[in-house]
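Cross-check.
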Amino acid sequence: MLQAGFPYPLGAIVRDNGVNFAVHAGYATRVELCLYDAHGYEEIGRYDLPASTHGVWHGLLPHATAGLVYGYRVHGPWAPRDGHRHNPKKLLLDPYARALVGQYRDHPDFEGMDIGNPGQPDPIDNGSLAVKAQVIDEDYDWGTDRPPATPWAETVIYEAHVRGLTRRHPTIPPELRGSYAALAHPVMIGHLKRLGITAIELLPVHAHADEPRLQQMNLSNYWGYNTLSFFAPEPRYWSGQEGSTPLSEFRDAVKALHAAGIEVILDVVFNHNAELDAEGPTLSLRGLDNASYYWLGHDGGYENWTGCGNTLNLTQPRVIQLVMDSLRYWVSECRVDGFRFDLAPVLGRTPRYSAIAPLLTAIAQDPLLACVKLIAEPWDIGPGGYQIGQFPAGWAEWNDQYRDIMRRFWLHDGVSRGQFAQRFAASSELFHQRDRQPWASVNFITAHDGFTLADLVSYNRKHNLANGEHNRDGHNHNNSWNCGVEGATDDADIQLVRLRAKKALLATLLLSQGTPMLLAGDELGHSQGGNNNAYCQDNDVSWLDWDSGRAPLADYIGALIALRQSCPALVASQWWPADTTGDHDTVEWRNPSGEPLKPHDWEDSAGRALMIQLSAFFLILINASANQVPFRLPPGCWRVKLASTEDRDSALYQDECRVAARSITILTEDVCEPGLFANPFLKEETS
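Predicted model, tokenized:
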């Protein structure tokens, strides 16, 4: 028999006298705890949770220990139009599960409703098939681990997928590739350090399920934006090394990255979960308390503001508690340094978006979460879903307007100097408000969702047929340019144009004010064959190719990041002055003749060249035109520090620098003879 136990904390917690089970099921009339064998196949015991406190059902199983495998069966009303979908024939996963046993496989037995008798609960028991939770009690020795606590203004983010980053790395032992352990391997950390990365942002590591539709096509949800458990690390990213667990291996990775001064940011999905729409599987929340966990319409149907079938109702106290407990768990028990929130307007829906919505307010007042980085993807597909610049102080946001303007500037036309400068200067019209600072703009050219950098300059159109949706999925408005040929080519002239474009885009990104984010693999020239929505490609399409042993842009990126970190104007949490006239220690904007930009210069969309002087001694010469442009330099002794060209089309002659087509040249003021030309990428000095 179970004792009454305790209603808090939620989940299965090992105590001195047994294991306490507590689960929220607000409208339930009865909750059964079901125990299974170690593999989760056979039920070995069933107990009623004896007590209910404010909607939390709880009980203590005396003498129980870690290792128990369990699930819940919840009795209560079946009234879908009123929001209730209780069905005790369906074994439910504990939302607070710290470890999972089994993997969700598409099967009719996960239907909540009886297909043959619509309106009634499905009578088929799915206990043997359901994913179960396992009780864990894992201590961990963090030793001298300390969070790097990199200031936002000095942060450079590298977005990566745990499996795809190392699955094809020839130097990492085969048994570790694609795992948390590989993430912590010295060769991987060495690569990140070589680039100058300060934070790695991991695509979802919460345990997730593959949608039935994908399973039927023999595909999987590679990106992982289909969460099954908000606490358990994805077991498919575990190496299986003896003596380790998914949790311990993840912690080892965090510890190793911290030792190298690299922060760990998790991409998290609190806007929907793997139960999808009304025809999706009943796995957990739907059977526990459907009416509380989801935004529902007047007829009990699911509001689909995420495009994934359901939307979590984050105004409900227990749903807020679930998210807050998850965030605090990953910070306190796994020591992660921040979170990037997928479809983040859902966090503030009431149902309209509000920056002072209950969950956002709860996060703001939490002392533990106040110490970590918070990044919003500031859009969803619901009403008023585009909320860029509207998140609270202390948050950063993905800036898609930066991405689009910079792609158009370098790969197309029609972008004025003013539009370019607006994005280059951290999009102040969006973020310079309510005590927000320049780092709030997370600038990016590429991300997991869309073309890689190599594909951005190699394809005019998406090529997503492998996804099984007849090329209908993915973005159609990519602002890409194939430079003359669609896809791979041996044409040396086109290859040169593509290389210049990539280098110019990277230089723009890493020398802009704001927080730069790089996509893993862009330094390797990684291509997805024109697939701009490779969410279901857990294969060579998405896995980074390290076999050549080359990282053609790695040294260039490393040099750019080193320049960035040495420029006071780029690593200070201060907005650049709005006044564009006169002398400034921070920033000056000039035309190629060396004169301050006038109103007509700012507005001219045909003006494809400009000069930016930062902190007095950095000079950035930008030429997005198809021809070489001469720049008249301001007084001083200037040295070419870095250029995005590797030929001799850019040259410095005393007070003039000729900048090659579609390229950037960076100069610094130095103590040297006038006219000295020193470009480490040209391997030559001339006077």
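The mean pLDDT is 94. The chain has three domains: 11-134, 153-314+338-357+373-570, 587-686. Passed to J.P. for a second look.
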